[in-house]
């Protein structure tokens, strides 16, 4: 290499090495969607062996959806069991509130915490993995998320989640001869952008 060629090489190499390294794009800030309690519903149904199914709804539902398209999303739902309105005979409501089942006085809250999931699941629906806390016991569950949308520029969205759990997994083992083990759960939660005021 001639002296002139070496000089040109050094100038080019020095200029390229002085260029700043490419920086990764900063992650998108986390978004928060808050559950609109009065516009949301948490329902369940039990299955007596000799009678039509009976169920109820909870009037107080709270929680939020947090995350971003890059990092994924998580939804948390908190249900006040004391707000139960039972749709059936009075004796069944008393039984549902009792220590044999929900034990409302001892365990005034039910929680569902999903695992992290992506935009595709929120748009197309599918299996939603998470944990359900009921009667002081937390168990993994797999619910079904119906197709929906929760992203800007929308001003609100509706998440619909349904599933079935075995009551024995949460310590509700009474009346096995008259009541089936399965309990159906449905959550319809309306969310609005922004943290809870």
Structure description:
This protein is an alpha+beta fold and 197 residues long. The chain has a single domain, classed as Lipid/polyisoprenoid-binding, YceI-like (Lipocalin, Beta Barrel), CATH 2.40.128.110. It has three helices and eleven strands, in the order H-E-E-E-E-E-E-H-E-H-E-E-E-E. It has an eight-stranded antiparallel β-barrel. A hairpin with a 5-residue loop joins strand 2 and strand 3. The protein is elongated.
Offer a concise description of the structure.
The protein has 197 residues and is of the alpha+beta class. Helices cover 15% and strands 45% of the residues.
SSE string: HEEEEEEHEHEEEE
Return the CATH class. Answer: Mainly Beta
Please report which band the strand proportion falls in: under 5%, 5-15%, 15-25%, 25-35%, 35-45% or over 45%. 35-45%
What number of structural domains do the residues give? 1
CATH hierarchy: architecture: Beta Barrel
SSE diagram, text form:
Blueprint: H1 3-18, E1 31-35, E2 41-48, E3 54-58, E4 61-68, E5 72-80, E6 84-87, H2 90-97, E7 109-114, H3 119-124, E8 126-134, E9 137-145, E10 157-166, E11 179-193
Antiparallel strand pairs: 1-4, 1-11, 2-3, 2-11, 3-6, 4-5, 5-7, 7-8, 8-9, 9-10, 10-11
